[in-house]
Amino acid sequence: MFQELCAACHGSRARGGVGPDLTVSRFKYGKDRASLEKSILEGRPGGMPAFSAYIKPEDAAALADYLLSL
């Protein structure tokens, strides 16, 4: 799911590109599961699109868990 939805902006290894590096220790909007799910589902100002129309909340939770494992 990361490769399909996120890699175009965050890179195939999540180290950044158009979007920020997702392997760093801190994120602008928080690096906890709830904050990541919110970012994925609702988007963030400045370029992070909302994916709530494309994925279920449980998929956002799975993506958040994946990002926390990096």
Molecular structure report:
- 16% of the residues are buried.
- The protein is built from four helices and no strands.
- The model has no long low-confidence stretch (mean pLDDT 96).
- It is an all-alpha fold and 70 residues long.
- It has helices at residues 2-5, 7-10, 33-42, 57-69.
- The chain has one domain (2-69): Cytochrome Bc1 Complex, Chain D, domain 2, CATH 1.10.760.
- The longest helix is centred in the C-terminal third of the chain and has 13 residues, at 57-69.
Rounded Rg: 11 Å
Identify the CATH class: Mainly Alpha
Which structural class should the secondary elements be placed in? Answer: mainly alpha
Query: How many domains?
Result: 1
Helical percentage: 40-55%
Going by CATH, the homologous superfamily would be Cytochrome c-like domain
Specify the biggest β-sheet: none
Q: What is the fold-level CATH name, i.e. the topology?
A: Cytochrome Bc1 Complex, Chain D, domain 2
Task: Note the run of SSEs as H and E.
Answer: HHHH
Number of DSSP-assigned strands:
0
* Assembly level: single chain
Distance between the termini: 15 Å
Q: Can you count the helices?
A: 4
CATH architecture: Orthogonal Bundle
Mean pLDDT: 96
Give the percentage of residues in beta strands: under 5%
